[in-house]
Amino acid sequence: MSSRTDDEAAADDPRRAILLVVESIPRGRVSTYGLVADRAGLPRRARLVGRVLSQLPAGTTVPWHRVVGAGGRIAFPAGSRANREQRARLAREGVPTLRGRVDMDRNGWHGPAGDLDRLLWLAEPPPVTRRAARRVTRPYDRGPADAKRRSG
DNA sequence: CAGGTGACCTCTG
DNA sequence: GCAGAGGCCACCT
């Protein structure tokens, strides 16, 4: 049932399937390793997602920063360069991190819905980028947020 | 071939 | 919240 596009893509090339999913994450939203794996037709293979992302070339256009750990946790060690880089990129998109994690209830992404699903799977580039380019409506207002933000 | 590692996850206590 | 156990699997020693 439903689309087997993901399964086929996964069977054909898991790496590619994962990258397609990651690239479909809209600006201002985040997903998790586990969810990306699921959507790529690779259940329980979150680890592979991390591995694929770790092998992205420098300067890639793949929005790797929109992928976080379970519960919105930044996967990189607190205080690491990569950790800061990811938070900076997210902040630039209007996604705040508090105590090393993203609020998934507010910024979490569940994936494309209904017809849009097929659209995203059949077409390479997600249309969200255009929408974002026109006008970025911040998914959140603001708050105390990272006023404290530890040493990480 | 065996063992350790890792941008991970979920379930149990 | 944290720790342990079991899963998953590509890659390196």
Report what the structure shows.
The protein is mostly helical. Among the domains are: 1-56, no CATH class; 69-106, no CATH class. The chain contains 8 helices and 4 strands, in the order H-H-E-H-H-E-H-E-E-H-H-H. It has helices at residues 5-12, 14-23, 33-39, 46-54, 81-92, 104-107, 115-122, 128-134, and strands at 31-32, 67-68, 97-98, 101-102. Strands 1-2 form a two-stranded parallel ribbon. The protein has a two-stranded antiparallel ribbon with strand order 3-4. The longest helix is centred in the middle third of the chain and has 12 residues, at 81-92. The protein starts with a helix and ends in an 18-residue tail after the last helix. The structure holds a DNA duplex (13 and 13 nucleotides).
Beta-strand proportion: 5-15%
Number of helices in the DSSP assignment: 8
Order of secondary-structure elements: HHEHHEHEEHHH
Radius of gyration, rounded?
A: 15 Å
Straight-line distance between termini? 44 Å
In terms of structural class, how would the helical and strand content be classed? mainly alpha
Q: Provide the residue-averaged pLDDT.
A: 76
Largest sheet: 2 strands, parallel
How many E strands? 4
**Strands side by side in the biggest sheet:** 1-2
Task: Give the overall silhouette.
Answer: globular
The percent range for helix content is 40-55%
Unreliable runs: 117-152
